[in-house]
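Reviewers asked in the last cycle whether our approach scales beyond single polypeptides. To address this, we selected a multi-component target totalling 428 residues and predicted its structure end to end. The input consisted of the following lines:
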Amino acid sequence: MRRSGLLALAVAAGALATVWQVLPAGAPPVYDTCLIGPYQLLGSNPPPTSASQTFPPTTSFPTSEVLTDENPAQAQILMTDGTFVSPTSAITVSITPIPPPARPPVGDSFDGNVYRIIAVATSGQQLNPQHSPTIVLRATSTTGPPRKIARLDGTTWTKLQTFISGCGDEYEAVSTRLGDFAILKTGGGAPSGGGGGGGGVPAPLVIAIIVVVLLATTFALARLNRGRGRLAS
Amino acid sequence: MVAVRSTHGRAVAVSPWLLGAGLSAAVVLRGAVGGADPPSSIPAAAVFASALFALALAAGWRPSRPSTSALLIGVAGGAVLIALSLASRPVVVLGAGGAGALAFAPVVAVAVTAEEALVRGALFSALMSRWGAVVAVVLTSLVFALVHLPIYGVTALPLDLAVGLWLGGLRLLTGGIAAPTVAHLLADLSPGWLG
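The resulting structure, written as structure tokens, was:
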């Protein structure tokens, strides 16, 4: 049994390594049942939050992150050592939800807010990162069509290589520069209902039927189990 | 109907088909209660976990005191799952989930334990008794992947299959659900402290 277990573990390790290497973009996390607060859209109440952090002048910018206050954050930027070089001026990294400055590509739609993520020196001059930061954005739900993080380049949205992270509704992408970012939902149209209860409202009748099936199954299992016990005694 | 001997030596009689039917009903119930975002719904997680515990207990599974070695193997197994996922990430930030993740940890713990009690507890024992270890590992891995299908979609299927194999291997290696439960729990909690 021990040998079978080790064999299964070896096969699983190979499969896991392959899956993470081959399908990183399509692979949601191992985890389920994550706590996700309601998405806060620009113009709704409560409004989405902004975030800003000022770093002192430095030649060795520290690994750090700036993120909005929702739970989990709707937008964040992850920066590694040396992302910015500014020996004489403080650097302020900010994240601000803004109205969409340009329309999404044909066939796509925004899923959530557009966020302006920038770094500025005290003079107001925008800084370009020396190392590409990671942008993490939340979608409005875990269900629905495939999504990509996109960056506004001029007047067009450039889709970035996107990874699913967090609890299935968080997406991350490495960007060579800062600017305006949004999640684009491929296929456009209205947000998907996602199945299950339909429209987000649990159907009492469906739930009642399932509960009856569950109770009947549990009862049958218990009877089988008890019957076996009597046979054994 | 299949007679199985649990890890504590208690003879029980269970049907893998009944367990499968019950598990399917629990998955549908979770989706119905969870509305648009089942992964974030605490009521859905609670209902799902309760249903799985009830099914596992009805099938004869009983909790037992885990051995230290099984717990350590579980920790190592969880570390492997986390390390592999982090290896594909561009940046890792400690403490990303904050207090919210900490508050949700008990819910995750209950849901994970319930899944393991049913899938790698009652169902695994029933399948192993009837068809042997290989079939038990493969079928419970398939079931594990299918359980997550309604929430994470088809793209999660290969990963969940591989994770199911890994947890099944831990179950086989240690003879109980403590190791896969610990590994599963660590992996599920990791997004709370690694972003």
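Strands of chain B lie at 2-5, 11-14. We regard this as preliminary and will revisit it once experimental data from Aim 1 are available.
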